[in-house]
Every structure is written in C-alpha cells, then in structure tokens.
Predict the structure.
Amino acid sequence: MTAVKVIEREHFDELLGAIARRGFTIVGPTVREQAIVYDEIESAADLPIGWTDEQDGGHYRLRRRQDEALFGYAVGPHSWKQYQLPAESKLWRARVDGRGAVVDVVEPPHETPSYAFVGARSCELHAMGILDRVLTGGRRPGTAPEVFIVAVQCGEAGGTCFCVSMNTGPVAERGFDLALTEILTDTAHRFVVEVGSERGAEVLVDVPHREAKGDDRDAACSVHERTASQMGRELDTTDIRDLLYRNFEHPQWDDVAARCLTCGNCTMVCPTCFCTTVEDVTDLQGEHVERYQRWDSCFTVDYSHIHGGSVRNSTRSRYRQWMTHKLATWWDQFGSSGCVGCGRCITWCPVGIDLTEEARAIRESDHGDSDAYD
C-alpha cells in the first residue's frame, strides 16, 4: 500500500473511535508513575500530550515539551512483548487428593482478545516480528489474537537509541496498518498517514482526512531525516557475530562483571528477551496446586541450574551469555540479531552499563583468542 493521507489533530479521536468500533481494545502510551507506559486508552486525552523523556545510561526522566505533541517521546520501560508473551500466565489448576496425587487438572480458558496497538515505533515492530519467530517459528497459531497496528514514525531519538545501527528505524516501512508522522508548526498540528494494509484503508474511510500534498510529504521526510541524525548511540555491527565468538575469553567480560548487579533489568525491559520459568504454587491447606509460566532472566543463578549446580555461576559468564546471545548466537538460532537498538537495556540499567560501549571495547582490543564456538 502506498497511499499517503493527512489527518488533522482535531480528528485524532475519530481515528481511535473508528478502530474501537471494529472491536479492538486500544492500547497505547500513557503517563503513569513518572514514566510513559503502555495501557488501555480511550481517547487522545489519555496519551502523553506535551511530554517527552530524557534518557541516558541509568537515567530516565519525563519533562514537559514546549508544544502539545501526542507522541513526542522515544520509548519507555514497557514493550509490546507483554501482549505476545505475558509476564505471568496460568497453565493449569488442579486438586490434590488425600494421597498427594494431582487430580482434576483444569486448564484456564484461552482468550483471544483483539488489540489495536497505537504508537508502536519501528524498532518495536521489528522486535514483535523477531519475538514472533522465536515463539512460533513465524507460524501464527489459530488462537493468536488479531492485532491492528498504528505505528508512529519517531519524531526525535532518545539518548540511548541506536536503531539506525541495527537497520530497524527510525522509520517503519512495513508491519503496520497505518503509520503516522506527527507534524507540528506554529499554525498547524497534523499527522501524515501512510496506509499499510487494506484494513488500514478501511478504517481511514471513517475518519476525516485529505490527500497529502507535496509540503506534507516534505515535512514528514524532514522529521524522518532529523530523527535519523539524532541517534544517542552507535553500534558497529560489522562482523559482530564472529567478533564475539573469537573473544570468549576477553578481559572486558571481567570489567563489565565488576559493574553488573545481575539484577535482570535489561532483560525485563528488552522487547525480544524471552526467558521464562515454570513455578508451582499451592494453597495453605495443600488441597489445590496451580502452575504458572513467568518471565525469568538469564542473569539469575537459578536459570541455568541443573543437577550439580548452575552452568553460569559467575556474573562474567551471565553477562557474556546475554550479550553474545543477543548479538551473535541469535543469528544461528533465528536468522537475525536479537537487538533492535531501542536502548532500553542502557537506560534502565541501574549502573548504566552500555551494550554499545562493551562491544566497542572488545572490538578495539580484539584478542581473537577463543575457539569456544568453533
């Protein structure tokens, strides 16, 4: 689809209404607990109007903008992963008989809600595609929820963004039904809309709009170019898979281990990390048992625990596992990088460990001394 339209700011709620009338639960950015997070929204008033974010290593703050932009921020701690892979899900519930045997196993009903994601950025669309391949091999199950995606082309880069390095942004080129570029001037506030699907075109019919003119397209291109030039970080991905493979014993792993708290924040905010664990819980009387799947992290000692102890019992080995998997072994498993350059792992690390700086340090003193992955 190549149609380009324009929606004026005063008609934005009509866009949300047209989506809601088609049975979608709308999820988008909103301000809560001094951060921009994803939650159910009903109107533009729920969006982070006039807010932006300051991001750096271990630093996140909201501040007011000088305008009333609806999407004038980068990305917050939430990702859309929570809708693909819930942080917690009940697998089954059962009764325990007098002999301690599990009986009457009941699985919870599988709901298939239809979501509309409003405000997804290009890096996040790539992350959703990557996670989809990880979880389903790209073959969507029949119970998978239907999703309508309204992407937003980034209007400014965050201090930890490096999506240009990963070829994942800042402009979404596919994977959306509609993609918006927000244009603000002293005299106008409008959205240049790219139509990405027949569903998107059908929704747009119910919303007042006009054809995009040359100045609309030029203004959108200026936003895209400005954002691409504002990246807060850069990652040299040249031969990075083999670089990490041959530096398995690099002293930089000890350096980062001296700073890393192994708190797992980076994996919790990452839009592609998918480690989970399974836990059983019982009631106080021991009459019922429930099994849950919950998010876990490769930074926890127990995650790699097998008979005899943990496979990765040092901070050095756990950070090396995470970074090498994200940038190298992910290619072997899933055919792409596991990193989309959103920068969340840098922003939300309590001590500001920067994946791009760790990779740079290894590259600058490439030892080439390991055959661990040969």
